[in-house]
């Protein structure tokens, strides 16, 4: 009879150990899922930030008067909410874009003419975009910031532009015109 009682206690102890091991594995798996979700949201925030930079570049290329020059400000910003493609009523996240136009013109701030050369860092725009993923309550779960420097020099760097006085324009000879000269990723979780 003693053997049967000790076998029952031993089976109970083995069952408890196995239960604890199972619970430990469940906790580890739950943490792995949380980490995967965070990485996915961080990647989505990065894509939203990149979309913000691309959106600003498209707006700049399509409209020479963008961003609006209100009261001599050199920084302009806007925020876009991007919807889920499958369900437009549900937002995926936002991208907040800031455009710094303080280096849009030459160092002397003179109008382009036949004697002006286009030197770096002048004739560039600095675009900063922050992509953010929020939960249902509006709390930010992940964000990521990208900065891009966009070349708006119509002539190649260090060369004289081709100026047309009849229509007061400069011929675009720069192959980097409206392309990113530099990207910076301010990665953040």
Question: How would you summarize the topology of this molecule?
Answer:
Layout: H1 2-62, E1 75-83, E2 91-100, E3 124-134, E4 140-151, E5 162-164, E6 169-171, E7 180-186
Antiparallel strand pairs: 1-2, 2-3, 3-4, 4-7, 5-6
Q: How are the strands of the largest sheet arranged?
A: 1-2-3-4-7
Largest sheet: 5 strands, antiparallel
Query: Compute the gyration radius: what is it?
Result: 28 Å
> What structural class do helix, strand and pairing data support?
alpha+beta
Strand content: 25-35%
Shape designation = elongated
| Spatial gap, N to C terminus | 62 Å
Q: Which consecutive residue ranges, at least 5 long each, have pLDDT under 50? A: 108-115
- Number of strand elements: 7
Mean pLDDT: 82
Helix content: 25-40%
Order of helices and strands: HEEEEEEE
Number of helices: 1
Pick out its properties:
single chain; 189 residues; alpha+beta; two-stranded antiparallel ribbon; 1 helix; 32% helix; elongated
Describe this structure in words.
It is a single chain. This protein is an alpha+beta fold and 189 residues long. Helix content is 32%, strand content 29%. The protein has one helix and seven strands, in the order H-E-E-E-E-E-E-E. The chain has a five-stranded antiparallel β-sheet with strand order 1-2-3-4-7. Strands 5-6 form a two-stranded antiparallel ribbon. It is elongated. Residues 108-115 have low confidence and may be disordered.
Short description:
This protein is α+β, with helices and mostly antiparallel strands.
């Amino acid at each position: 009879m003693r053997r049967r009682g000790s076998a029952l206690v031993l089976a109970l102890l083995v069952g408890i150990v196995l239960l604890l091991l199972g619970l430990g594995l469940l906790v580890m798996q739950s943490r792995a899922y949380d980490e995967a979700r965070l990485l996915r949201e961080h990647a989505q925030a990065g894509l939203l930030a990149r979309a913000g930079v691309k959106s600003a570049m498209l707006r700049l290329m399509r409209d020479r008067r963008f961003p609006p020059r209100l009261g001599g400000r050199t920084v302009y910003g806007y925020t876009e909410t991007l919807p889920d493609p499958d369900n437009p009523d549900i937002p995926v996240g936002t991208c907040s874009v800031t455009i710094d136009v303080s280096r849009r013109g030459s160092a002397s701030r003179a109008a382009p003419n036949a004697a002006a050369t286009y030197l770096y860092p002048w004739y560039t725009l600095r675009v900063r975009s922050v992509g953010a993923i929020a939960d249902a309550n509006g709390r930010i779960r992940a964000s990521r910031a990208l900065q891009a420097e966009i070349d708006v020099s119509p002539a190649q760097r260090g060369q004289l532009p081709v100026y047309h006085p009849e229509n007061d324009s400069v011929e675009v000879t720069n192959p980097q015109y409206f392309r990113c000269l530099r990207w910076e990723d301010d990665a953040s979780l």
